[in-house]
Amino acid sequence: MLSSRSASPTSAAGADRRGNNNDKIGARGEMTDKRSTIRTDIGWSDASSITLFGKDFPNEILGHMNLGDMGFMELTGRVPDANESRMFNAMVVTLVEHGITPSALVARMTYLGAPESLQGAVAAGLNGLGTVFVGSIEGAARILSEAMPVADADADFTVLAAPIVESFMAQKKIVPGIGHPFHKPIDPRTPRLYQLARETGFDGPYLKLMTAVSQEAERRSGKSIPVNATGAIGALCCEMGFDWKICRGLGVMARAVGLVGHILEESRKPMAAQIWHSIEAQATAHFRQDAVVDGEES
After folding, report:
1. By 3-state DSSP, what share of the chain in percent is helix, strand and coil, each rounded to 5?
2. What does the alpha-carbon distance between residue 251 and residue 113 come to, in Å, rounded to a whole number?
């Protein structure tokens, strides 16, 4: 699903994608048969140049684009306009850091065991971005895009939200994008994201549907279950026309930055070993207590 504002890179859909045994590889490794199935629209380089999405990398990208804009271009094949840049950068900045979270703890513990592998520690932390933490962006974007395949500002959002909530509650599953383990009664990041959406023109039907999902869940449960940051970002991904399958990638892009920061702090002010020993002592305290009691009785 791509909106008119966010066109995808040049499509190769019209090309013959069938493989055959007659493809030949030239001296520089190029596939010489036009029926080749291998193709990229991202970029290429030779001895003296690098071209990405049709732009000269040293002269048109370096010094002209920030990291968020580069991420946007990787997903859309084009440079964002001013509003897209502001909104997309806010979305990924939201996901960079959230303190000593499970992903940060895993990264720090992995670094304790393998300090020679910073990338391994970061990767370990990223592996935990799933249906509960950060990766719920994907879940939120999916339920919204499936409920409303084409953006419809005149849709009855309450009607669309009802079967979403009913399905998750029937399965006793958490509806992605609403509620938070400790940000109560509201995730403080969400109002700011909604405000930025209004300021940049992205306060469209998917944000309204996400709000309706929250309201329907609250009505059925009798509890306060507001839209959280990942729900807002999932809705904004739909507003920008991103395929729900890639939306978790925003969290991966962003949290990698934060985890590198955690590893740097761990190298300077380590806490992983203390956490390890503290948890081990707490988890096994009953063994030692039993041993003392047995000793006294004997």
Report:
1. 55, 5, 40
2. 25
Q: In the structure encoding, which two tokens stand for residue 189, read together?
A: 């990041």
- For the residues of 22-65, what is the DSSP string, one character each? T--B-TTS-B-STT-----SSEEE-SS-EEETTEEIIIIITTT-
Q: What CATH code would you report for 81-272?
A: 1.10.230.10
Q: How far is it, in rounded angstroms, from Cα 295 to Cα 86? A: 67
List beta partners, residue 25. 31
Query: Sheet harboring 50-52: ordered strands across?
Result: 43-45, 50-52, 55-56
At 178 the three-state DSSP class reads strand
Q: How far out from the chain centre does Cα 118 lie?
A: 21
- Side-chain half-sphere exposure of 233, counting CA atoms within 13 A: 26
Q: Are 203 and 194 in contact (CB under 8 A)?
A: yes
- What's residue 19's pLDDT? 41
Give the pLDDT score at 37. Answer: 86
H helices of 148-239, in order, are 157-170, 189-200, 205-221, 229-239
> Three-state SS for 227?
strand
| Distance between CA atoms of residues 21 and 127, nearest Å | 38
Each residue of 168-224: pLDDT tens digit? Answer: 999 999 899 998 768 788 899 999 999 999 999 999 999 999 999 999 999 999 999
Please report the pLDDT score of residue 216 as a whole number: 97
Domain boundaries, the chain: 40-80, 81-272
CA distance 197 to 193: 6
**Regions of the chain with pLDDT less than 50:** 1-4, 6-23, 297-298
